[in-house]
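Reminder to self: tokens first, then the designed residues, so the page reads top to bottom the way the pipeline ran.
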């Protein structure tokens, strides 16, 4: 080396000594990438095992078919303000609650007996509008549960509601 080159080399060594050393590349990123890869492979492997090799789950117990009790069609005269006669024909089905269909069928005369006074007090105006069907249905459900005990009838299904 020549003398001119020597001071330049010394300057470079001094600058290198003064400059903070470059930190070694962190291996944290590498570890993080490896962990993410392992998690991905582990999750994929577990999913494949559950999908392909796991035993099939027990079959869900099928619900028994819905049972309905048919109430004979009823016809009643409606009260009108002007004295004209109007007829109401009603046909409903009951959905048993805590009673079986056979027990409910045996006690059907008690239910019909509770329905009659309500139906005879209806006026044609009470049956107008879409909410009227809902009100009649709810009232019949209340009266059937009063006759047989709370929870014995789960629902009342209106089949026909004809006003003539």
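Designed residues (164 positions):
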């Amino acid at each position: 080396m020549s003398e001119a080159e020597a001071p330049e080399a010394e300057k470079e060594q001094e600058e290198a000594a003064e400059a903070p050393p470059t930190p070694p590349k962190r291996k944290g990123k590498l570890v993080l990438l490896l962990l993410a890869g392992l998690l991905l492979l582990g999750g994929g492997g577990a999913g494949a095992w559950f999908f392909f090799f796991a035993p099939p789950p027990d079959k869900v117990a099928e619900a028994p078919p819905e049972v309905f009790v048919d109430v004979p069609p009823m016809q009643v005269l409606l009260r009108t303000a002007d004295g004209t006669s109007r007829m109401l024909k009603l046909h409903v089905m009951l959905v048993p609650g805590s009673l079986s269909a056979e027990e409910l069928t045996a006690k059907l005369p008690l239910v019909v007996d509770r329905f009659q006074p309500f139906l005879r007090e209806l006026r044609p105006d009470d049956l107008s509008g879409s909410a009227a069907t809902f009100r009649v249905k709810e009232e019949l459900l209340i009266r059937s549960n009063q006759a047989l005990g709370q929870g014995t009838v789960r629902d009342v299904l209106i089949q026909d509601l004809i006003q003539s």
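The longest helix spans residues 28-52.
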